[in-house]
Write a structure and sequence with these properties.
With about 400 residues, the protein is α/β, with parallel strands linked by helices. It is about 40% helix and about 15% strand. It is built from 13 helices and 14 strands. Strands 2-10-9-8-7-3-4 form a 7-stranded mixed beta sheet, with helices on both faces.
Length: about 400
């Protein structure tokens, strides 16, 4: 019996493959310094857990509306509106079992087979996977290094657009490279979308994971609100990665269609989990700045050590929890030409486990520099210092 051929187009979140390799090395008695997965080793706030437990005790264990419970949709509409200086109604909010389903349902709602969708590369690998799985043409756009980090290659984006182009996926405060758009870059991208009548998926997973400054949404730019779907997730800000709770904030026509996909896919997001989401937004958030301060300490410790390593350089992102060091010269010092070999050697010689640029989309043909990605969300400061200290000695 034959399986569906479309499954061959389905990619994966390759950080989990790195996790498996690290676990296997650890099982052999080796110490691991886990920089590979963007999970948080910090607990969800007690008040959120208590709200969920109360919901279970109160019998909130059955089906609920496919689009989400009214209390959560109302809370999200108000919170997202205030933080982005926009006006959303509860009807614009469709609750999801995590942020990832927003990607899938956006693609299913706006794209027909053969349509083209532009997406960031390097970027979150699920963009590419879902575009191709549903029969679209995935067209990657690059980032170019700058004195402050990375900038979107806007000229490349313009060159990629054809009459078949349907949408752009945009991840400000980017995973994996930590890039944040300037106002000018964000406005230029909006101008491209408006001029070519394109939908935009604005992945704002790290919108509130800031160490300084203030985030802005591309949806705030005139002409963008009616063509933009915002990906919202509880995973990062509230340390709720395993809860699987998020939302699509969308124009009404798209919101209604995404809600219909909810009915077909999972019926509804887990009922009692949503009450935890209501408490996260409307309840005590005093733990959020504590978490951000802790993450900032980790970031600063990692950056200090990385920039001392011979042949390694990294910029300082103002949000998120990823670092994207350039290791081109370090690899040359070690006589290693392939990123996969560099990562494996680092794991076996130092215990430091990380993803590489190869885990975030197929490299473009003209890429010359070599990068790795370190997540500092799931490893304590003392382990960061110990692990990167070993890696620095290994490179030197």
């Amino acid at each position: 019996m034959q399986l569906a051929t479309r499954r061959e187009n389905l990619g994966t979140e390759t950080a989990f493959a790195v996790s498996l390799a690290a676990a296997e090395w650890n099982a052999k008695g080796n110490k691991i310094y886990p920089f590979h997965l963007g999970d948080l080793n910090l607990p969800t706030s007690k008040n959120i857990v208590e709200a969920m437990n109360k919901a279970i005790a109160d019998g909130k264990t059955g089906y609920c509306p496919a689009a989400g419970i009214p209390q959560l949709r109302e809370a999200l509409a108000e919170d997202v509106s205030v933080r982005r200086n926009l006006k959303f109604e509860p009807a614009n909010v469709i609750v999801q079992p995590g942020g990832k389903p927003v990607i899938t349902k956006f693609i299913q709602t706006i794209m027909n087979p053969g349509d083209e969708v532009l997406y960031p590369n390097p970027g979150y690998p699920i963009y590419e996977s879902q575009i191709e799985y549903f029969g679209g043409v995935a067209k990657p756009y690059r980032y170019v290094p700058s004195s402050t980090g990375f900038n979107i290659d806007l000229e490349q984006i313009k060159s990629l657009i054809t009459p078949k182009t349907k949408a752009i996926v945009y991840n400000d405060l980017q995973n994996p490279n930590g890039a944040e758009s300037t106002d000018a870059e964000r406005e230029a991208l909006a101008e491209i979308a408006i001029k070519n009548n394109l939908w935009v998926l604005s992945d704002e997973a790290y919108f509130e994971m800031r160490f300084s400054g203030k985030s802005k949404s591309i949806a705030q730019i005139p002409g963008m609100l009616e063509r933009t779907v915002i990906l919202y997730t509880f995973s990062k800000k509230f340390a709720m990665t395993g809860w699987r709770l998020g939302a699509a904030i969308a124009p009404l026509e798209l919101a209604n269609n995404i809600a219909k996909l909810n009915t077909n896919d999972e019926s509804c997001t887990t009922h009692f989990i949503q009450y935890g989401g209501v408490e996260a937004i409307k309840g005590d958030q005093s733990n959020v700045p504590v978490m951000l301060n802790l993450l900032k300490e980790r970031r600063d410790a990692a950056i200090s050590l990385l920039n001392k390593m011979p042949g390694v350089s990294v910029h300082t992102p103002e949000a998120g929890f990823y670092l994207f060091p350039d290791v081109t010269e370090a690899m040359e010092r070690k006589g290693i030409s392939e990123l996969a070999d560099f990562a494996q050697d680092a794991l076996h010689k130092t215990g430091v486990s990380f993803c590489t640029r190869l885990h975030f989309g197929r490299p473009q043909s003209d890429e010359k520099r070599k990068y790795i990605r370190l997540a500092f969300s799931g490893i304590n400061k003392d382990q960061i210092e110990e692990g990167l200290g070993l890696m620095g000695k290994w490179i030197a």
